[in-house]
Amino acid sequence: MVNPAGGTLPRDIQNFINGAYCPSATHKRFESRNPADNALSALVHEASREDVERAVTAAKSALHGPWGQMSLNERASLLNRVADLIMERAGDLARAEVNDTGKLFGPTLKGEIPRGAQQFSVFAEITRTHFSFPDIPSDIPGGGRAVNHPARTPKGVIAAICPWNLPFILSTWKIAPALACGNTVVVKPSEETPVTATLLGEIMNEAGIPPGVYNVVNGFGPNSAGEFLVSHPDIDAITFTGETRTGAAIMARAAADIKDVSLELGGKNAGIIFADCDFDKAVAATAMSVFHNCGQVCLCTERLYIERPIFDKFVHALKEKAESLTPGDPRDPLTTLSPLISRDHREKVLKYFELARTDGATIVTGGGVPEMEGRLAEGAWIQPTIWTGLLESSRVIKEEVFGPVCHIAPFDEESEAVAMVNNSSYGLAATVWSGDIPRARRVAAQIEAGIIWVNAWMIRELKSPFGGFKKSGIGREGGEFSLDFYTEIKNVCILGE
Ligand code: NAD
Ligand code: 6OH
Q1: What's the CA-to-centroid distance between 465 and ligand 2, angstroms?
Q2: Which CATH fold would you assign to the domain 2-265+472-493?
Q3: What is the pTM of this model?
Q4: Are the C-beta atoms of 29 and 44 separated by less than 8 Å?
Q5: What fold is seen in the domain 269-462?
Q6: Catalytic residue among 162, 181, 277, 298
Q7: What is the per-residue pLDDT across 287-336, written as a single tens digit (0 to 9) for each?
Q8: What angle is formed at CA 192 by the lines to CA 162 and CA 17, rounded to 5 degrees?
């Protein structure tokens, strides 16, 4: 049993450059606070332009050192060692993640950290087995035979810019394929959640990953580490997860140097629930999809369309689920609701609560801030909230709130539900609940989203493709689908006799 309060947490978070922790060149530090009680959890060294320069230079030269000469088997062994060491340090990583985010300790220790470890073993195996291609002979006009050898080569130095909602998993999602494909990386964690990516530096050193292959620069976006990294001429590609607006700014900056981008952006995910579904399962999974991680998973559902005969019953059942959630110390196994990431983010969510009221919503439950006791009264707590009665044109239906909220509307016709789901500028994920599988397949085929679950939510095989339609992003990552972003394909054509 890992003690959630035990272990020594790093309080002074430095940058990790060329295999060593180093303070900011300007000695500037910023505060990181625990959203459960607003206590100061770390002082973080903000990387200056000079620090970013050193990190990118280290990553660039590491490409051609021992890392670049390694066999695929050697590289895979190192990455498997990283996976093992993450599991050995799972307690430290989970505690750090909980302090940074307010996430529940149990699911973080048992779910998110092991899943981050798994990314390294999955990509070690994928790249070890996929880098040899069969020869493809082709006929040349005028005689002769040529043999084409397509070979994947590393793209170079990858900038990985990460969000705060699932800090460890979403950073490993980028780091593991980047390294497995032979690249080097400079990671910029969110300013809200710098610790786990920084701790990973210790693990990389212990695993024997050569210096410079993995680097971390901490700081903010504009006029800070994020912007310095994105605009650095020696960055070869940028993988970004975060808000659509930020993705657009990064893409615009990357265009100047024709840098490749992979963008995992915002969403306004919807669920369609037909009257013939397994009602209890649909309610339980939908409650998870709305309230898990306080609604701060990019795959969370914020719009629900319920077939009219079960509308009232469904609203009532989801209300009961929402009201049964218990906010509290994230380290307490009895806590079932975590806080938002920060009080600033809570201000944003509360503005949507206000907007919903102004737009005439019926507040089924929630709509405010819960009363918390003692030190937790300082935290970023919010009530799980359900609305009905809004017009589809309301900004609350159109914009991503990123909190434990949803709007529920009835529908009569299948085509009407599909049209409402698709009437969005986003297209990341959707759920369909029905006992009629041919219908569920037909509906799924019409939904404009990158990930569609039928009678499920959030079951995600790491090797499956992940990404969004429309303003939810560009590109697909996950398993083999990551290879196209993290490699360049070079074709060598040899003309024989
Ligand atoms: P954000 O866009 O505010 O920040 C993400 C990262 O970008 C941070 O590290 C930030 O410092 C950095 N950044 C900000 N401006 C920058 C700039 N101009 N140049 C370079 N870097 C810059 O996002 P967030 O608030 O951390 O995360 C929440 C958002 O992320 C939500 O919109 C959510 O939907 C989205 N998200 C999407 C996915 C997905 O896979 N589609 C997954 C998780 C989160
Ligand atoms: C967006 O926030 C992505 C979530 C995906 C996962 O957590 C996963 O483990 O597949």
Answers
A1: 12
A2: Aldehyde Dehydrogenase; Chain A, domain 1 (3.40.605)
A3: 0.93
A4: yes
A5: Aldehyde Dehydrogenase; Chain A, domain 2 (3.40.309)
A6: 298
A7: 999 999 999 999 999 999 999 999 999 999 999 999 999 999 999 999 99
A8: 60
